[in-house]
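Box 3.1 A note on notation
Throughout this textbook, protein chains are presented in two layers. The first layer is the amino acid sequence; the second is a token string describing backbone geometry. Keep the layers aligned when reading.
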Amino acid sequence: MAQFFEIHPENPQLRLIHRAVEIIRKGGVIVYPTDSSYALACQLDDKQALDRIRRIRQLDDKHNFTLVCKDLTQVSTFTKIGNDAYRLIKILTPGPFTFILDATREVPRRLQHPKKKTIGVRIPNHPVAQLLLQELGEALFSATLILPGETEPMTDPYDIKNQLENELDLIIDAGIIDGGETTMIEFSNDGAEIIRQGKGLAPMLD
């Protein structure tokens, strides 16, 4: 059964963040808040935890997975990021965007898109997510918490507790989030293109 931490959305309690980091490092699957909704997360090299997230979301191998990073330095470890992409991501982050880029060898093959060899990356603008990434000291594997058969991500931690507490190790409650999908931007040889419009606005790409 999942532990349930009430963490302040603007001034997160460091002791609770440290306990969350311990749970992640021990192979835990957690739910944490982002600037667009609640999301599932685990260590990116933990195959068992990753499989649990796949089961909860009922995802197949063709799903575009996401790494949540604390800054552009981490992003550049996992992606082949050119100057134009770097500049654009710097302008738009932290924020509700997912960027699709070519993956480097640092990304486990099972997380890459099977044909394109790409990976999604995010730098969320949420104090809890940012402190969690900072204290963990590494990127997290992440998937938006959308239950099978639903189209909208989950935004209320008590709904999450009622439906998923037996399948998770930790739920971080940072209040109800004004939900929505991230804006997805894909980079290719032709430049940057918005492939899904969500909460994030990028007028320079209109």
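The chain has a mean pLDDT of 94. The two ends are 46 Å apart (CA to CA).
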